[in-house]
Write a structure and sequence with these properties.
The complex is a heterotrimer of chains A (about 425), B (about 120) and C (about 500). Chain B has about 120 residues and is α+β, with helices and mostly antiparallel strands. Helices cover about 20% and strands about 35% of the residues of chain B. By secondary structure, chain C is of the alpha+beta class. The chains are: A alpha/beta (about 425), B alpha+beta (about 120), C alpha+beta (about 500).
């Protein structure tokens, strides 16, 4: 695949938000839409969410995650959107320049008229919930375990305790049970369930997996691999209640303690973040404070339903296409001014063709080296000469100007770029 | 008269259902906000049904496992029997989403189908 | 058949590896044994990575001499071994007027120890140098020779330098006993068999007492582990600019707040006397203690920005200081004991052991020479251990060139810290191969960011499995019995057999 220097819309992330945004941007008239995905295939985290419950709003069907993703993948592919897989965006600037790193494509720079951030979210980890004890192997986030069990095909343990009653944790409790492992307990420090009630019913209650509200972990036991955890009941201020400790033997502790929007790249681009959501401040079109940079899905705030993520992607994609088209039109009006023979630089660097209709435009420049004889100063397009005048001599210390007049507008209009050459008449 | 309490799982709303029974007969359902809820409550009170999602081994695919699910609900008490069947088989790549992996699994009348495309390695 | 060596070093911590590196300069066969799966798994694994200036140790102690001498060796060491070291200087910060006199005491002590480049600055100056400092700061002792490094990187670099110069390493090899011939040590017994050697060096850190007792040396010597707990902050959220110590108390140097060479701020350690030499668990009271301690220096720290907690052990000994008139009994032991031949005995090398490590290595060489050992320099000794690329720290242009040369560097595996497959492969195939997840993590800094390995772990396990030609189920976090995976998802019958 040939990577272009310039795209209309670049979407970062090929999960549900990114795919919906790319599709909508393409439908909205953006010609060159590029989706950059760090994993080796499209679909994002949906690919490991093999349980059903997706698409009830969008498709009026009860689909598993991979199938929900598949429908968007198929549509995106049919529309002629470009994809870069196994590629990491290392940096994004507020001028919408992106730096990409890939084994297959190298380290490349691309420019975008508009960007949609769709990096999703990541799981909160052990440190963020203050879990004392050893640091043995066998403490994983629910999502990491999900990847292993459902995609890579390996079980990270046989006897599990799950901390946190988030949806991924409860869903993993059922998955692990289906694959013959034992889930001893789900502990939740709050007095209420943090995920959906339906998941409590079909993931825990159905299989007799005990959920203990107002409980947390006091200590992780085991030096190399988890051997047990010590659970404890807490009061309403989350203080441990002495005497309620219980040692629960297990070989794995899964954490399902919440998700955080992933915004490292957003910060690099100068996108302002809301400390409450952890995601960018956005307007009704999901545009961030940086013009032309949009955000969609869990990167903005954590959703509980994928259908809403897709809807957000649609809005961000449509708006990004609109922005890109306007930006493209604006930039198409400009033609660059290029230093040619014996010209070191020209100011301005580009000019708006329409501006010439309103009045004179003075081109200011300096020469590279002195020419102490009669010279031509010539402005020309790729095929046409626009203006030529003479000077007795040129010297680097003395600025040279050439004036473009409104009567030249028609010739300028024909040119893709303007070059200025300064050369001795004797060489003409 | 007997009352059974459920949380509806037909959609993510999580409505609290009250199902009034007389013997094996449902006489009234309360608490639902849509028809799907009513159907769920009735079914749950008489013979609970679930969709099942899992994975099967796949040979020569880009991943070692293919995610699959039952095209419709099956009796809850038969889930582990279905899982046994699913665990026992291996299919060859490539596979397309919604390809039938096990037809009419253990005579439930429901097919187990692929959840995604799985190209060859 | 038993392998025969000229020198065996017990322990591959920073001290053991530094000694091995110094020994590698001379003719002779050197073996380092380590009971863990990697270098630097004991006291080196978890400390503050400060290269101390040398104003803390008691004047006249061996500790003071090693610290000040060692500190001065770090610039050359960095130039040869290519690890991250910044001679940033450090501060002892006095909060409130009542703490000011302590700075003078330390200054006097530092001068006695021969520490160069110290001065006392006032509160306003300290506020200017560290914008986040407690506004009640009254002054600070500034020691310009203090520095920060990554102690584990230093440990690896020293070990690799030794390995490149012919030193052999055996991991998962635990010392059990000495093989004696009269009063002479002629070898060691380990869980992996016996090895003969003319000299054995005790660099066993927390277990140095156990090792020397087996040789019949210093039966009264005892290592008392002191546990220290730490918090690591997300560098995207807060960055402290300096190395800040509080005024020390009787309990030790106190809870410090420091920047690191990786840009993360860390706070800690506390000092709990414990008995279990393997107890690196964190505790709720301990975590509260370091939190409160840190507030004294930087009140604006936010606990929500903590991305990791860990605990390490210091090997506090009870060795008496040999200098007449100095009443101090927690000194370093670096000696060739009189009652046993073929034995170089080290003990009680706690903080500032990292700063001292090159001086300790040189001291060991000097002792061997004094004992009549004929150390002949190798003609082809290579002092330079080259650095390996670190993608994260490179410019766009350099990354482009690197990926053109080796496309594996284009593939980012760790998303938070931007560590690439090329870097991982380089570590797996390095002079001291990184064979566990933690070994790769500590060398590349992968998995240390805000997701704490959640994304990269399955991928690293897959890469290790591929490169080592073993099942993913054999890949461990840090060696024996720390496997990640127990069975294939669909292989339920295997589990039933257990």
């Amino acid at each position: 695949m040939i990577i272009k220097k310039q795209y209309d819309v670049v979407v970062i992330g090929a999960g549900p938000g990114g795919l919906a945004a790319a599709i909508e941007a393409k439908k909205g008239g953006a010609d060159d839409v590029l989706v950059i995905e760090r994993d080796v295939e499209l679909g994002g985290i949906l690919l490991q969410c093999i349980h059903n419950g997706f698409g009830l709003q969008t498709f009026k069907e009860d689909l598993p995650g991979p199938e929900y993703a598949q429908r968007y993948i198929n549509e995106a592919k049919s529309l002629g959107i470009s994809f870069l897989m196994d590629t990491m965006v290392m940096d994004v600037t507020s001028q919408r320049k992106l730096y990409l790193s890939s084994r297959d494509f190298g380290y490349v720079e691309v420019d975008a008229h508009a960007i949609v951030l769709a990096m999703g979210c990541r799981e909160r980890t052990r440190a963020q919930v203050r879990l004392p004890g050893y640091r043995p192997n066998g403490v994983f986030t629910a999502g990491t375990a999900q990847r292993w069990v459902n995609v890579e095909g390996y079980m990270p343990g046989e006897k599990f305790v799950i901390l946190g009653s988030g949806d991924i944790g409860m869903i993993m409790a059922r998955r692990l049970t289906f694959e013959g492992a034992h889930v001893e307990r789900v502990l939740e420090i709050q007095s209420y369930l943090s995920g959906l009630s339906r998941n409590y019913v079909q993931c825990l209650e159905d299989w007799g997996i005990p959920l203990q509200l107002n409980h947390t972990i006091k200590k992780i036991i085991g030096k190399n691999r988890v051997e047990a955890i010590e659970s404890v009941a807490v009061d309403e201020k989350w203080n441990f209640i002495p005497g309620t400790e219980e040692i629960i033997p297990c070989d794995t502790l899964l954490l399902s303690v919440g998700l955080i929007p992933e915004n490292e790249l957003s910060k690099k681009a100068g996108v302002a973040l809301d400390p409450v959501t952890g995601g960018p401040f956005v307007d009704e079109h999901f545009q961030t404070n940086v013009p032309g940079i949009f955000a969609a899905g869990n990167v903005v705030h954590v959703y509980d339903l994928v259908d809403w993520v897709s809807l957000a992607g649609v809005e961000a994609g449509r708006s990004a296409a609109e922005f890109a088209l306007a930006e493209k039109e604006r930039s198409a009006r400009y033609i660059p001014l290029v230093p040619g023979k014996n010209v070191r630089y020209i100011v301005p660097h580009k000019l708006d063709k329409k501006a010439l209709e309103k009045g004179d435009i003075s081109l200011q420049m300096r020469v590279t080296k002195p020419i102490e004889e009669d010279v031509w100063l010539e402005v020309h397009g790729e095929k046409n000469s626009i203006v030529r005048r003479s000077e007795r001599y040129v010297r680097p210390g003395e600025m040279v100007t050439i004036v473009l007049k409104p009567r030249m507008a028609a010739e300028v209009e024909k040119a893709g770029r303007l070059t200025v050459d300064i050369y001795p008449k004797s060489e003409a | 008269m007997e009352e059974k309490n459920f949380i509806c799982t037909a959609c993510p709303m999580g409505c609290k259902l009250i199902v009034r029974m007389e013997g094996d007969e449902v006489v009234k359902i309360l608490g639902h906000r849509c028809r799907k809820g009513e159907t769920y409550g009735r079914q749950e009170a008489i013979a609970p049904q679930r969709m099942v999602a899992s994975t099967v081994r796949i040979a020569n695919g880009i991943h070692p496992l293919l995610p699959v699910y039952t095209k419709g609900s099956i009796p809850k008490r038969k889930i582990f029997e279905v899982l046994e069947k699913i665990r026992a088989i291996e299919v060859p790549a490539p596979v397309k989403a919604e390809d039938v992996i096990i037809a009419n699994v253990i005579g439930t009348g429901v097919d187990v189908i692929a959840s995604r495309d799985m190209p060859e390695k | 058949m038993q392998e025969k060596y000229d020198f065996i070093v017990i322990g591959a911590g920073v001290v053991g590896c530094m000694i091995a590196r110094w020994l590698s300069r001379y003719e002779g066969r050197v073996l380092v044994i380590e009971k863990q799966a990697d270098v630097g798994m004991g006291t080196t694994a978890a400390n503050t990575s400060i290269v101390h200036a040398g104003y803390d140790p008691v004047p006249g102690s061996l500790k003071a001499r090693m610290n000040v001498k060692g500190n001065a060796m770090w610039d050359q060491l960095k130039a040869e071994l290519n690890f991250a070291f910044v001679r940033s200087g450090d501060y002892v910060v006095a909060i409130g007027e009542e703490e000011l006199p302590a700075l003078d005491t330390l200054m006097v002590q530092g001068r006695k120890n021969g520490v160069p480049g110290m001065m006392i600055i006032n509160g306003a100056e300290m506020r200017a140098r560290e914008k986040n400092i407690n506004p009640n700061v009254s002054g600070a002792l500034w020691a310009s020779t203090g520095g920060i490094c990554d102690c584990f990187q230093v440990n690896v670099a020293a070990g690799e330098s030794a390995a490149m110069n012919g030193v052999e390493f055996r991991f998962n090899t635990a010392f059990e006993d000495f093989i004696m011939e009269g009063d002479r040590i002629i070898g060691i017994k380990t869980n992996q068999g016996d090895f003969l050697s003319r000299w054995v060096v005790n660099a066993a850190g927390l277990y140095s007492d156990v090792v020397m007792h087996k040789a019949g040396v210093r039966p009264e010597f005892k290592i008392q582990p002191r546990k220290g707990e730490y918090f690591v902050f997300d560098r995207a959220d807060i960055q402290i600019d300096n190395v800040l110590f509080p005024v020390p108390s009787d309990a030790g140097k106190g809870i410090m707040v420091t920047n690191t060479v990786h840009g993360n701020t860390i706070i800690g350690p506390n000092a709990q006397i414990i008995d279990d030499k393997e107890d690196t668990s964190t505790t709720i009271p301990g975590m509260d203690e370091i939190w409160e301690g840190s507030q004294k220096l930087i009140p604006s720290l936010d606990r929500r920005h903590v991305i990791a907690t860990f605990a390490g052990l210091r090997a506090m000994g009870n060795g008496p200081c040999k200098t007449p008139g100095v009443n101090y009994n927690k000194d370093y032991i670096i000696e060739i004991p009189e009652n046993v031949r073929g034995f170089v005995n080290l003990g009680g090398i706690e903080s500032p052991g990292l700063a001292s490590s090159p001086a300790i290595a040189e001291e060991v060489i000097d002792l061997l020479k004094d004992a009549g050992e004929d150390l002949r320099e190798k003609k082809d000794w290579e002092p330079i251990r080259p650095a390996r690329p670190r993608y994260r720290d490179m410019s766009h242009k350099d990354r482009q060139l690197l990926v053109e040369m080796d496309p594996q560097f284009g593939r980012v595996i760790c998303r938070c810290e931007n560590v690439t497959e090329g870097e991982i492969l380089a570590e797996i195939h390095a002079p001291i191969p990184a064979l566990t997840y933690d070994a790769i993590k500590r060398r590349t800094w992968l998995g240390t960011g805000r997701c704490q390995g959640g994304f990269d772990m399955p991928r690293v396990v897959a890469i290790l499995s591929r490169e080592l030609g073993v099942s993913p189920m054999e890949i461990t976090k840090r060696g024996h019995s720390s496997e990640y995976l127990v069975r294939k998802t669909k292989d339920l019958e295997i589990a039933d057999d257990n």
